[in-house]
């Protein structure tokens, strides 16, 4: 095989690799595929009304009245103003999905060092207007026991309310659900929401199991980075939130920039060390002391402070003549 054909094959391989690698990079910067128009993807019947619409940065109506798990009249805004809020829209008698959402939330919080009442609050709101504060109190006691940190009780809030307040809240969040008369249950999606201390919707996390890393990063962003560590700040630089998936993924462009910065720093460090070694080796070759100069630089004096390099063999006194080595047989020393 000739060298020309080898070069052509290498160019083709590099071009193919660049094309493959460019696909995820484009996806990370917001280039997405169009919505499918296939009518077979439409949801039949009741399921067509079930959805969670993302209303990122929308302000919740904080003046809505509710009843807390102790039977007291409260406002939604009573749980905002100090810390981010993790909200779960559920109903307490749900036989399956809502229970799984709350179980998943508690399991995730159990492995985090952030705690309710300290870095954030948990607010669960029933969208079933027929449920009572007594049922909310039982749910709180069960999940607080499951969480295993009784000192965080003040950070957990289970609310019930009238249908008007529930509808206003679910509409603001984009949580669409329907009651199924055939089975006497609500049909709904599964998600939790992270809100800022001012009541703006910051993040949606879907499903019944939640990543502790994603929830932590979501809380840090919702708090405007008032909580967390420098490591979290670094992770937020490397990862970004994808609204389509409700998860944090690696930001390709940011990682490329970070790699470039690290490469430049490594090159500068190598160059500095190389120049320093070169100066030291040059000074050693000339016999100069690199540290004895009057201003911290190299000295122009020989290492013996200016004395002759050939030492005298004998001195006859403080001011006596020095004996010099013979220049050969038959010659005088002078």
Helix content: 25-40%
Q: What name does the CATH topology of the domain at 45-225 carry?
A: Glutaredoxin
Give the class-level CATH name of the domain at 45-225.
Answer: Alpha Beta
Ends distance: 79 Å
* Unreliably modeled segments: 1-42, 251-256, 305-310
Supply the helix-strand structural class: alpha+beta
CATH architecture of the domain at 45-225: 3-Layer(aba) Sandwich
Mean pLDDT across residues: 76
> Can you write the helix and strand succession as a string?
HEEEEHEHEHEEEEEHHEEH
CATH superfamily of the domain at 45-225: Glutaredoxin
The main sheet orders its strands as: 6-5-4-10-11
Summarize the biggest pleated sheet: 5 strands, mixed
The shape is elongated
Using DSSP, what is the number of strands? 13
Q: Please report the number of helical segments.
A: 7
Radius of gyration: 37 Å
Report strand %: 15-25%
């Amino acid at each position: 095989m000739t060298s020309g054909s080898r070069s052509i094959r290498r160019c083709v391989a590099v071009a193919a690799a660049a094309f493959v690698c460019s696909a995820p990079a484009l996806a990370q910067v917001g280039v997405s595929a169009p919505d499918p128009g296939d009518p077979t993807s439409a949801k039949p019947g009741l399921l067509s009304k079930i959805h969670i619409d993302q209303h990122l940065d929308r302000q919740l109506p904080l003046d809505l009245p509710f009843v807390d798990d102790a039977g007291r009249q409260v406002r939604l805004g009573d749980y905002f103003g100090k810390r981010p809020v993790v909200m779960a829209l559920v109903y307490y008698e749900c036989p399956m999905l809502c229970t799984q959402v709350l179980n998943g939330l508690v399991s995730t919080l159990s492995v985090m060092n952030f705690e309710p009442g300290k870095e954030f609050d948990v607010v669960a709101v029933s969208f079933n207007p027929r449920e009572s504060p007594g049922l909310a109190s039982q749910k709180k006691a069960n999940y607080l026991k499951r969480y295993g940190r009784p000192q965080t009780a003040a950070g957990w809030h289970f609310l019930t309310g009238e249908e008007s307040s529930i509808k206003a809240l679910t509409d603001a969040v984009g949580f669409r659900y329907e009651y199924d008369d055939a089975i006497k249950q609500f049909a709904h999606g599964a998600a939790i929401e992270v809100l800022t201390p001012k009541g703006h919707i910051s993040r949606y996390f879907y499903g019944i199991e939640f990543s502790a890393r994603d929830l932590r990063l979501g809380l840090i962003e919702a708090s405007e980075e008032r909580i967390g560590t420098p490591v979290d700040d670094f992770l937020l630089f490397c990862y970004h939130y994808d609204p389509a998936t409700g998860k944090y993924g690696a930001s390709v462009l940011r990682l490329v920039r970070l790699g470039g910065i690290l490469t430049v720093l490594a090159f500068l460090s190598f160059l500095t060390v190389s120049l320093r070694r070169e100066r030291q080796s040059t000074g050693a070759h000339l016999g100069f002391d690199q540290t004895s100069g009057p201003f911290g630089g190299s000295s122009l004096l020989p290492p013996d402070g200016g004395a002759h390099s050939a030492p005298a063999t004998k001195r006859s006194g403080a001011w006596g003549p020095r004996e010099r080595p013979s220049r050969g047989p038959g010659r005088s020393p002078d």
